[in-house]
Amino acid sequence: MLRNHLVIIGNLTQDPVLKHVGENRSSFLQFCVAVTRRKVKGEEQKPDYIYCKAWRTTAEQIAQYFRKGSLIGIIGELRSDCYEKDGEWHTIMNVDVTNFEFIPSNRPGNRAADADPQSNAAPMAAQDDDALPY
Hints:
By secondary structure, the chain is mostly beta strands. The chain contains two helices and six strands, in the order E-E-E-E-H-E-E-H. 11% of the residues lie in helices and 45% in strands.
């Protein structure tokens, strides 16, 4: 069985803007993630821009916790959308986001890292094995 599964890590290129679409006003978010290509010797390192779409709770959470420049991990499926414009057919590739991850960053003001409940966990204290009751 073949599976369409994509994982990317990159930075948001702009602040996310949440929209509500359709009759039932579903939350929708379309955004772009810049992903750095592997460096080729003698060439300048260039980014790829990956367009993503998220729906409902996933869209709401990304819009709430991430801003332009935030590092984010995206899990999703690659989709091709076709449309006709001026008599010509065009294809756009998008990632349909099924999940996302908070990625720690040392950048000041990274709301995503600040909001990650796991990043705020207190470190476990070292214990002396002789002090354990078992």
